[in-house]
């Protein structure tokens, strides 16, 4: 982040008494001749001072020896985060300020305008991934092996933008899971179609999860996003297992009253070319492809009923009870999971913040 670090301290050695001059503004080169508090950021990984077009620092000295120094800094600080609720997490990122080398016997840090108004944010400042919900400051002392040090702490309360993850991860994975349910409406005998649909949905969900995890730190626990992706994979896999159960448990049960091929019912069919001459179903079997196509094209009612009856006899019960149950069970359970998932992790993020 970029910030302006403004410090004030007294140095009696720099007092002056000049008429009509209350303060003196000095250049950056004068800093090496005065005492400075050696302020640094304890949790800062890298900090730098912009030098375009000149070093972004200035110093003012007043008559009573009070020194005012302002620097423009770019700070890269460490922010410890708990990723269990990611991306519904609300991290709190600290910025810890102290003196490098000086103890409380030499220097004491305090907030000039109190702990509520010393840190100011410019209006209109936005972040790509977070919203700043609030700022908290503390003034305390810490003891280490070098002695007791005065420390200032700033805590930035953040809230992660969830909209990006809804559009890029949650919505696509939800649609993929819904797509896997289409197999419940596909004929159970269409094994290639149902297997291909199941494998495609599983691979699509897995590839989406891999792309999302590439931008995350390698944490040793599951995040909220990992939980959602794994549940989606389980639903896709369950659709595949459901089809295996359909094939295993469902048997072709011939209809009551059906007979063998040698005793099958003779269904009279009118030949469209025979002017009312009746033929039997057994004869229709031996018709040429041309005659069969002609009957389908003309729309012979009895011939159509005969083919429907034959298809029912060959296929038995075309809709499995397992498929019929899955059509309602899978969507209902997925909706229940969504309600539980969002309420649980949303409340967990609020509890973590409090």
UniProtKB/TrEMBL annotation:
SUPFAM superfamilies: Neurotransmitter-gated ion-channel transmembrane pore, Nicotinic receptor ligand binding domain-like. The keyword Disulfide bond applies. Residues 1-161 form the Neurotransmitter-gated ion-channel ligand-binding domain. It is found in: Postsynaptic cell membrane. Keywords: Cell membrane, Chloride, Chloride channel, Disulfide bond, Glycoprotein, Ion channel, Ion transport, Ligand-gated ion channel, Membrane, Postsynaptic cell membrane, Receptor, Signal, Synapse, Transmembrane, Transmembrane helix, Transport. The chain crosses the membrane at residues 92-111, 162-186, 193-212, 227-246, 328-346. This is GABRA. PROSITE patterns: NEUROTR_ION_CHANNEL. It comes from Mytilus edulis. One of its GO terms (molecular function) is extracellular ligand-gated monoatomic ion channel activity. It holds the Pfam family Neur_chan_memb. The keyword Nucleotide-binding does not apply. It comes from the Eukaryota. One of its GO terms (cellular component) is postsynaptic membrane. InterPro entries: GABAA/Glycine_rcpt (IPR006028), GABAAa_rcpt (IPR001390), Neur_chan_lig-bd (IPR006202), Neur_chan_lig-bd_sf (IPR036734), Neur_channel (IPR006201), Neuro-gated_channel_TM_sf (IPR036719), Neuro_actylchol_rec (IPR038050), Neurotrans-gated_channel_TM (IPR006029). Belongs to the ligand-gated ion channel (TC 1.A.9) family. It is a multi-pass membrane protein. Residues 169-263 form the Neurotransmitter-gated ion-channel transmembrane domain.
């Amino acid at each position: 982040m970029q910030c302006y670090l403004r410090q004030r301290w007294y140095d009696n050695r720099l007092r002056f008494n000049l008429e009509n001059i209350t303060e003196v503004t000095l250049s950056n080169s004068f800093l090496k001749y005065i005492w400075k508090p050696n302020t640094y950021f304890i949790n800062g990984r890298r900090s730098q001072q912009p030098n375009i077009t000149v070093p972004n620092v200035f110093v003012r000295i007043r008559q009573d020896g009070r020194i005012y120094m302002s620097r423009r800094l770019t700070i890269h600080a460490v922010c410890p985060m708990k990723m269990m609720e990611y991306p519904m997490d609300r991290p709190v990122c600290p910025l810890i300020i102290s003196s490098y080398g000086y103890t409380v016997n030499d220097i004491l840090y305090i907030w000039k305008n109190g702990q509520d108004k010393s840190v100011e944010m410019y209006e209109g400042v936005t972040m790509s991934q977070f919203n700043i919900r609030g700022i908290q400051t503390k003034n305390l002392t810490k003891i280490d092996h070098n002695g007791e040090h005065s420390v200032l702490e700033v805590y930035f309360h953040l809230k992660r933008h969830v909209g990006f993850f809804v559009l890029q991860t949650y919505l696509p994975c939800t649609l993929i899971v819904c797509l896997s349910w289409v197999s419940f409406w596909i004929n159970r005998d269409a094994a290639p179609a149902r297997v291909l649909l199941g494998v495609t949905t599983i691979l699509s969900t897995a590839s989406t999860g891999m792309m999302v995890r590439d931008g995350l730190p390698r944490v040793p626990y599951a995040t909220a996003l990992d939980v959602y992706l794994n549940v989606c994979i389980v639903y896709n896999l369950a659709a595949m297992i459901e089809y295996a159960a359909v094939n295993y448990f469902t048997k072709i049960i011939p209809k009551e009253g059906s007979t063998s091929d040698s005793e099958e019912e003779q269904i009279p069919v009118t030949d469209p070319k025979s002017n009312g001459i009746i033929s039997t179903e057994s004869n229709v079997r031996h018709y040429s492809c041309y005659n069969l196509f002609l009957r389908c094209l003309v729309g012979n009612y009895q011939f159509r009923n005969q083919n429907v009856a034959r298809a029912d006899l060959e296929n038995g019960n075309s809709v499995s009870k397992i498929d019929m149950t899955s059509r309602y069970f899978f969507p209902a359970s997925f909706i229940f999971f969504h309600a539980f998932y969002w309420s649980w992790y949303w409340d967990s993020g609020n509890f973590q913040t409090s």
